[in-house]
Structure formats: C-alpha cells, structure tokens
C-alpha cells in the first residue's frame, strides 16, 4: 500500500503537482509544464508518463481521496515539488526543497517540536513489549508506549478510551490531586489528524518495513503498528484512519479496535 492524500487537496492540484514539479523517474529533475485538469471517476485514475515511457499511476479511491503509490515521507501541499527516487521507489520531496523531515527538537520534557510543521508531539516512554489494553486495565501512565485504546465505545462517537482516558490523562485531568499540569504543563493535547500523523513517518529510518518503526528515534519508543488519527473514514462512521508505522501506510480500522496513539498539540 502507499499513502492516502486527504481529499482537501483537489485532484487537479495533485496532477499539477505531478506535472509541474515531478520529472517522473528522474530524481531531482523538474520542469515546468502546462497545468492539466483531469477528473477521473472514482475507482479509476490517471497515469503520468515521461518521455522515456516510465510511468506513475494515481488512483482515485472510493472516498474521493487520491492514492499516491509510495509517497514519502510527508503529504504534499499544492505546488510543492515532488521527485521520484529510483533507488527507493518512493515519491517525496526533492533535494533541497521543503518537505523532508527536519528541524525536530527534543524539548527534554517528554515532548518533541517539529519546527517544520509547528506541531509539538508527545514522546513515548518505556520499552516496546506486549500491548496493554487500557479498556480492561487502568493505564495510569498515558505516555507508556505499549498502551492501546479504543476510538469509540458506542460505535461511532469519540467516546472510547482514546478520548475519555488517554487524552484526559495526558491533559492532566485524571490526577490524584485536584490540580496538576498536563504533559509539559499544557492541557490542549489532542489526537492528531491523519495528515499530521503522516508527517512524522520516516521511510528512511533504519529497519523501516522490516520490523523497526518508520519514525525518527527522537520520538522515543514506537511500536511498528497502527496509531490512531482523529479522522473518521468517509462513508463508514464506524471506522477511523490510522498510520501503520511498520511501513508508513494509512489504513482504517473499526473504532472498537484497540490501537496505539501519540498526542499532539499546536496547528489547526
């Protein structure tokens, strides 16, 4: 699987990205071309081909989102340059262009700041081991890397432990004392959006795709598995999107499933 680009980026803009800034299969080579507008039917797609015959297919999913095979490492914005790396087989930021994972700062207080996006992330603690189902046991430390939470308890609403337990604890609202600070002294932590979560995927991380998580070590221990986003799947209110840190794919799971989570603040 590849990466799912949120539907806020129009299909025409996606193709414009490909034609304006991507000399397909020529890493770093980019040439201006006329913008072309296409509106393929859901389930179909379009193919960009260069003058050597090499091609990249863009498929429109049933949700209306555009599937970019091998997009790495962050979702693009309109008119951002994209290049194809023939060595890795991945689409991603061009050398020297915005888009590469950079500017990550360990704040020393259990958080990591991404100066590129302006987001501040929770840094997980502990050692990766057997999962801990926080719907059946009390997980007093929300930062523990092995905790898993349900998105919803009722089926569709954000009323599972992800919101009623994890976020409450990381925001300092389920403490032994009447007043206590949330993580790094803040109480505005939230579940990341899908596009935000995709920005911390690092497909160049050592062992990515072979057992180690596709993320930079500065974020602390990470299970190479699914981490919840706040995004409900279009057309299926019982399902929500996650990012699978084994290989960076964006998947969706039933909201009653237990998945991992990493809190974020800022942005929006």
What is the compact description of this entry?
Helices cover 10% and strands 26% of the residues. It is built from three helices and 16 strands. The protein has helices at residues 11-21, 161-170, 194-198, and strands at 3-5, 45-49, 55-60, 66-68, 82-85, 90-93, 104-106, 111-114, 119-122, 132-133, 147-150, 226-233, 236-244, 249-254, 258-259, 264-265.
Can you tell me the overall shape? globular
Order of strands in the sheet with the most strands? 1-4-3-2
Strand content: 25-35%
Q: Helix count, per DSSP?
A: 3
The proportion of residues forming helix, as a percent range, comes to: under 10%
In whole angstroms, the N-to-C terminal distance is 28 Å
Major beta-sheet overview = 4 strands, antiparallel
Query: Order of helices and strands, N to C?
Result: EHEEEEEEEEEEHHEEEEE
Structural class: mainly beta
What does this 3D model show about the protein?
Helices cover 10% and strands 26% of the residues. It has 268 residues and is mainly beta. The chain has three helices and 16 strands. The relative contact order is 0.15. A hairpin with a 4-residue loop joins strand 8 and strand 9 (119-122). The strands form five sheets. The protein has a four-stranded antiparallel β-sheet with strand order 1-4-3-2, with helices on one face. A four-stranded antiparallel β-sheet has the order 7-8-9-16, with no helix packed on it. The chain has a three-stranded mixed β-sheet with strand order 10-11-15, with helices on one face.
């Amino acid at each position: 699987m590849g990466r799912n680009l949120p539907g806020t980026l129009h299909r025409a803009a996606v193709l414009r990205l490909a034609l304006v800034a991507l000399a397909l299969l020529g890493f770093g080579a980019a040439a201006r071309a006329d913008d072309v507008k296409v509106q393929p039917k859901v389930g179909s797609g379009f193919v960009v081909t260069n003058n050597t015959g090499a091609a990249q297919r863009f498929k429109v999913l049933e949700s209306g989102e555009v599937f970019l095979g091998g997009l790495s490492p962050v979702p693009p914005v309109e008119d951002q340059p994209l290049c194809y790396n023939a060595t890795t087989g991945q689409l991603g930021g061009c050398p020297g262009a915005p888009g590469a994972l950079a500017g990550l700062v360990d704040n020393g207080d259990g958080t990591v700041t991404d100066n590129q996006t302006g987001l501040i992330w929770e840094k997980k603690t502990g050692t990766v081991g057997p999962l801990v189902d926080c719907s059946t046991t009390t997980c007093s430390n929300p930062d523990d890397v092995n905790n898993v939470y349900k998105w919803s308890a009722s089926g569709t609403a954000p009323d599972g432990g992800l919101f009623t337990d994890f976020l409450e604890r990381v925001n300092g609202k389920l403490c032994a004392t009447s007043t206590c600070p949330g993580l790094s002294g803040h109480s505005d932590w939230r579940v990341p959006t899908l596009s935000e979560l995709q920005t911390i995927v690092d497909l160049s991380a050592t062992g990515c795709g072979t057992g180690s998580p596709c993320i930079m070590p500065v974020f602390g221990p990470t299970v190479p598995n699914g981490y919840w986003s706040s995004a409900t799947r279009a057309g299926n209110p019982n399902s929500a999107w996650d990012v699978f840190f084994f290989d960076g794919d964006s998947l969706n799971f039933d909201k009653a499933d237990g998945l991992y989570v990493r809190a974020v603040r800022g942005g929006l």
